[in-house]
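Recall the central idea of this unit: under ordinary conditions, the amino acid sequence of a chain determines the structure it adopts. In this exercise we apply that idea directly, starting from the sequence alone.
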Amino acid sequence: MTAMTVYSEAAEKQTDVITDFSVIESELKAIGVQFERWQANQPLAVNADQQAVLDAYRSSVDKLNTQYGFKSVDVVSLGPDHPDKEMMRNKFLAEHTHGDFEIRFFVDGKGLFYLHANGKVFLVMCEKGDLISVPANTTHWFDMGEHPSFKCIRFFTTENGWEGHMTGSKIASQFPDFDEYSSAL
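Accordingly, the structure predicted from this sequence is:
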């Protein structure tokens, strides 16, 4: 279920869990975050490869490419049996920024974005069909949980792809992780 909870920077809960997509979209728009729901052009097999995923979403991918001029588009897929899941999870758990904006579209599964903006931390549980665009230089982090299960299309305006700039802050440890947040939904 797509959901959002807003906290203060001091980890004091400010809202109950919000599940109304239009409310989530409006709240995120206020901090410059694009949040949309997409539909596939064709059904996808569970083991669909990168090309099949991109073909299924071709019109939406092309629309974003025309709008933003992306240099790189790929598909990242992580399952609970992936041998590098712990290393990959830890890579994204620390608060960081990007010089580029970050767009992720969830083709399948789910993941938890934490957006640190305007003295608040927005926990956004994204699921299949959700597209989130985090503005450049917005502090954030991401948790896929101990047993990840997601497939995302990633868009980059640089050919280098993902380049995170760690803030060194320990703020991420003050908030519920993916598994804690999921179990409370």
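The chain has a mean pLDDT of 91.
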